[in-house]
Design goal:
single chain, 92 residues, alpha+beta, Arc Repressor Mutant, subunit A, 3-stranded antiparallel beta sheet, 3 strands, elongated
C-alpha cells in the first residue's frame, strides 16, 4: 500500500476534490469529509486536526449551518469586521 497522506495533505486534497462546482470550500458533514477522515486515519477526530491546521493558517474554517466549511487559505471568502460594520451603521 502506498504511504499515507499527512493530515494537511489529506485535507487539502479533500477540499479540492470534494467541493461542488462553483464553490471554493467543502462542508465537513455534507461532503462526507468527516466520515472519510475518520476512516482514512483510523478513527482520529477531524475537528481536533482541522482546528489545529486552522490555528497554523494552513486552512480556513468558517462556521455554517450543520457544521463548518473548510477552505484553502488563498481561496477563503473575505470576512468584514462585523463589529466595525455595526458601529458604522449606528453612526458611532
Amino acid at each position: 500500500m502506498a504511504e499515507k497522506l499527512s493530515h494537511e495533505e489529506f485535507i487539502k486534497k479533500a477540499i479540492v476534490s470534494l467541493r461542488k462546482e462553483g464553490y471554493k470550500g467543502i462542508h465537513t458533514v455534507y461532503s462526507g469529509f468527516n466520515t472519510a477522515f475518520k476512516k482514512y486515519f483510523d478513527g482520529e477526530d477531524p475537528i481536533k486536526v482541522t482546528t489545529q491546521l486552522a490555528a497554523e493558517s494552513k486552512i480556513v474554517i468558517r462556521p455554517v449551518k450543520g457544521g463548518v466549511m473548510l477552505y484553502l487559505p488563498e481561496e477563503a471568502p473575505k470576512t468584514a469586521n462585523v463589529g466595525d460594520e455595526a458601529l458604522k451603521k449606528m453612526g458611532l
